[in-house]
Specification:
With about 375 residues, this protein is an alpha/beta fold. About 40% of the residues lie in helices and about 15% in strands. The structure holds pyridoxal-5'-phosphate.
């Protein structure tokens, strides 16, 4: 049997080690996972409360239209219900976009480094990927991205805040980009960390949907909402885009329990505000710590921070792993000599600071 040729050049997603594995390997009591940008404060208590009162009927298929969540989200975002599409995580929306728009001979434009799945799924559909390096401060270079667009370009992937840096695309450069981006190109704008962005940095991307029918915004319940394990995310775009995606979409692609949990989570904005505030305080304190030990880091509008390491990120990763902290080495993210740290609780971050300080002092002595 012969699989698509491109698959021989790709590998399955390399997930972080599972905590149980590491605990056994290094004989640790406790592991702090700071590798996947999950919400360290869990999820809205109301979700648990409601679900404990009675679970959905698992013997019947879910509502493929996602009616209840669709209606709640449409009113919250002030868009039409027909402008929404749901996926098994944003991940699946990205996959649907690739299946809908890409053919062999077409190409996409993306920043590098950025979220790896844009490239992965684009390649699988036979498209070429034009990668445009971010600038020295980790921002998308939108002018160079415009230059990289040609008549065969179908999608330009924008990630704001960008994973793994945390930088957002500034409003003025985005406006200029929108006005200069050819209409045959779909602008896929990934806002997985939207809920963490500070008000001053929010460019209100949804406000451009009416004037630009080649724009899709993607968000998720996996990060700030704390529902990563349930797999549900959504896209917001012109109805014509959604219609096409619905042809490609599996009829029952999100589960009944995910739909129900997301609906409850959406109604509890106090939880989101609380997560935002706690994250912001932890971030400030951790940045101060990095300043003190003299490690540079990228500006971040998210619940993670990319810090430059004095030796390879993989080695720092290993040092931390042996002491019970899982972070993500930059070598796996396309930016060597860095580590990406998801911001945990105050308590866990204080412990991490102690371990990093010890590492730093050892490194100086050497
Ligand atoms: C985590 C993440 C996603 C994936 O989110 P899911 O909804 O869990 O699939 C998408 N984009 C970026 C940039 C992310 O960091």
């Amino acid at each position: 049997m012969e699989a698509k040729q491109i698959l021989s050049q790709l590998t399955p997603y390399k997930q972080g080690k599972q905590t149980k594995e590491i605990q056994e390997e290094f004989g640790l009591d406790r592991i702090v996972k700071l590798a996947s940008n999950e919400n360290p404060y869990g999820y809205s208590a109301q979700v648990k409360q409601v679900l404990l009162q009675g679970l959905p009927e698992f013997n019947v298929y879910p509502d493929g239209y996602t009616a209840d969540l669709r209606s709640a989200l449409a009113s919250k975002l002030e868009v039409e219900e027909s402008q929404l599409v749901f996926g098994s995580g944003t991940e699946e929306i990205i996959q649907m976009l690739c299946r809908t728009y890409l053919v062999p001979g077409s190409n996409v434009v993306a920043a590098t480094p950025t979220f790896g799945q844009y490239k992965h799924y684009s390649l699988i559909e036979g498209a070429e990927v034009n990668e445009v390096p971010v600038d020295a401060d980790g921002y998308h270079d939108l002018n160079k991205m415009l230059d990289a667009i040609d008549e065969n370009t179908r999608i330009v992937w924008l990630c704001s805040p960008n994973n793994p840096m945390g930088t957002v695309i500034p409003k003025e450069s985005f406006k200029a980009f929108l006005n200069n981006c050819p209409k045959h190109v779909l602008i896929a704008f990934d806002e997985a960390y939207f809920e963490y962005v500070e008000p001053e940095a929010n460019i209100d991307v949804l406000s451009y949907l009416n004037s630009h029918n080649n724009l899709i915004v993607m968000r998720t319940f996996s990060k700030a909402y704390g529902l990563a394990g349930l797999r549900i995310g959504y896209g917001i775009a012109d109805e014509a885009i959604i219609e096409k995606l619905n042809v490609v979409r599996g009829p029952f692609n999100t589960t009944s329990i995910a739909q129900q949990a997301a609906l409850i989570a959406l109604s509890d904005q106090t939880f989101i505000a609380d997560s935002y505030n706690k994250n912001k305080a932890v971030k400030e304190s951790f940045k101060k710590f990095l300043d003190q030990i003299g490690w540079k880091y990228f500006h971040t509008e998210t619940n993670f921070i990319l810090a430059e390491t004095p030796i390879s990120g993989t080695e720092v990763f290993q040092y931390l792993l042996e002491r019970g902290f899982i972070v993500r080495p930059g070598e796996l993210l396309g930016i060597p000599n860095t580590i990406r740290i998801s911001l945990g609780t105050d308590e866990d971050m204080n412990e991490l600071k102690r371990v990093l300080l010890a590492f730093h002092n050892e490194a100086i002595v050497k």
